[in-house]
Design goal:
Chain A is α+β, with helices and mostly antiparallel strands. Chain A has five helices and five strands. Chain A has two domains: 5-80, Beta-grasp domain (Ubiquitin-like (UB roll), Roll); 89-158, [2Fe-2S]-binding domain (DNA polymerase, domain 1, Orthogonal Bundle), CATH 1.10.150.120. The chains are: A alpha+beta (163), B alpha+beta (292). Bound molecules: flavin-adenine dinucleotide and FE2/S2 (inorganic) cluster (2 copies).
Chain lengths: 163, 292
């Protein structure tokens, strides 16, 4: 009999209660139990950041968090960024600045970008690059990703689309 | 499933340190404490560690805090790197600790990893072990029966090995106040991918009114199996005016305690680490003296 325990997690505003094995990773819980496949698994070794989600407001690599650690908590995934049919400023920034090519890294990039801007609404380019250090992209060379975050920061400061 | 799957384990989320201690005792060494999980879970996923149970410390209230008092700083073991780097209290009382915490890994790892986990894990390439050594910290640990205090000088013992016994929980890190005219620095040669320290050096230097070195604590990480004080370097500094030449001569001895124990891996050979220990000790000392 596998060891099981019950968890309740609020994901993008919806409460979910599920039996899980303690060894189940948050990334797998989101993707395979809740079918929220926007959160990607790239390296599965805590390195690439593709699996980044907000757990209780903090960006974490969900391949390095157990689902049971999120019990009672709040998770935001890329699916939870848009509100009322309107993109989050960070999503709009990626759209406008062509901040992606294949898009594999993009959900993690955007979640980390949301965290960067929450902590520092007016980051310098160096601060953006430093903040995104844990998110790897094999396509873009990062230039347009940084431009996207800058654009999101400017739009948010101008009182544009904010979460 | 194509990804790494851990072997099964029991999961406990105690609400007090006492309960965590009781659980540790119950599993007789078969359980592991789970803090931020950013050293432990990668090992568990690869089945390099196969604990019978994980005991999650994150539900215990009152293990994450920074307090400043006359006796210095007291930091809860579960305080994250992010909480340390963004704490005005830490920035004021022990700026080198905030600065070093900000140099760890990336945004996400710093949101999860804890000071207690970093010290208890004693990763050879961990940053904070060196900083806490240079700051001369005391560590408070608990068992089901009581508590004891360990000087950081006696804490790091070997590769991934500390003075902690299997039934002990590290609860608090206490950092004595820095004397007047003290400068501090932590510099590292960071692994380009993970940012772990290939070599890292922390320096805490106090000068007297005449500019003579009254006290110095220097610690090296990344170079050998665990973080160590560079006592020979310290001895050369103390009692002298710290000219560039004296700093250079002292830095040249920074690897003395490591002897022939330099790490060698895909990131750097032992020879390169030995050379970089000198370079980074010189940089750390120069920066620390510049900040007095
Ligand atoms: C991609 C990546 C990059 C990283 N880069 C760096 C870096 O640049 N610099 C750096 O220093 N580190 C780095 N780390 C390691 C990171 O800092 C870890 O978070 C840290 O080493 C362990 O802290 P933790 O809270 O995550 O502990 P855990 O992983 O939860 O625990 C580690 C060990 O300590 C034990 N333990 C934890 N807390 C206690 C306690 N209170 N009492 C007794 N035992 C305890 C656990 O049982 C376990 O054996 C990196 C990690 C990753 C995944
Ligand atoms: S999949 Fe989690 S960091 Fe790469
Ligand atoms: S857009 Fe392809 S990995 Fe970043």
């Amino acid at each position: 009999m596998p060891i099981q325990t019950q968890i309740t997690v609020t994901v993008n505003g919806t409460r979910h209660t599920n039996p899980v094995e303690p060894r189940l990773l948050l990334a797998h819980y989101l993707r395979e139990v809740l079918n929220l496949t926007g959160t990607h698994i790239g390296c599965d070794t805590s390195s690439c950041g593709a699996c980044t989600v907000l757990l209780n407001g903090k960006a974490v690599k969900s391949c390095t968090v157990l689902a049971v650690q999120a019990d009672g908590g709040n998770v935001t995934t890329v699916e939870g960024l848009a509100k009322d049919g309107k993109y989050h400023a960070v999503q709009q920034g990626f759209w406008d600045k062509h901040g992606l090519q294949c898009g594999f890294c993009t959900p993690g990039m955007m979640i980390t970008a949301v965290q960067i801007l929450e902590r520092n609404p007016n980051p310098t380019e160096a601060e953006i690059r430093r903040g995104l250090r844990g998110n790897l992209c094999r396509c873009t060379g990062y230039h347009n990703i940084v431009e996207a975050v800058k654009a999101a920061a400017a739009a948010s400061r101008a009182g544009g689309r904010k979460r | 499933m194509t990804t790494n799957v851990a072997a099964s384990f029991q999961y406990h989320a105690p609400s007090s340190v006492e309960e965590a201690c009781r659980l540790l005792a119950k599993y007789k060494g078969g359980a592991k404490l789970l803090a931020g999980g950013h050293s432990l879970l990668p090992l568990v996923k690869l089945r390099l560690a196969t604990p019978e149970a994980l005991i999650d410390l994150s539900r215990i209230k009152g293990l994450s805090y920074v307090k400043a008092g006359r006796k210095g700083l007291a930091i809860g073991a579960m305080t994250t790197y992010y909480d340390i780097e963004s704490s005005d209290v830490v920035k004021k009382a022990a700026p080198v600790l905030a600065d070093a915490a900000a140099q760890v890994a990336d945004t996400q790892v710093r949101n999860a990893g804890t000071l207690g986990g970093s010290l208890a894990h004693s990763d050879p390439a961990g940053d904070l072990p060196a900083v806490v050594l240079a700051l001369g910290a005391e560590l408070e640990v608990h068992t089901a029966r009581g508590s004891r205090t360990i000087s950081v000088d006696n804490f790091f013992r070997d590769l991934l090995t500390t003075a902690l016994r299997p039934n002990e929980v590290l609860t608090e890190i206490r950092i004595p106040p820095l004397p007047a005219r003290t400068g501090t620095a932590y510099v590292k040669l960071a692994n380009k991918a993970s940012h772990y320290a290939v070599v890292g050096v922390a320096a805490v230097v106090t000068l007297d009114k005449a500019g003579v070195c009254a006290a110095a604590r220097v610690a090296v990480t990344g170079a050998g199996p665990h973080a160590v004080r560079a006592k020979r370097t310290e001895r050369i500094l103390i009692g002298k005016k710290l000219s560039a030449l004296v700093i250079r001569r002292a830095a040249e001895r920074a690897g003395a305690e490591i002897g022939d124990g330099f790490n060698s891996d895909i990131h750097a050979s032992a020879e390169y680490r030995a050379a970089m220990t000198i370079v980074f000790a010189e940089r750390a000392l120069t920066e620390a003296v510049g900040r007095v």
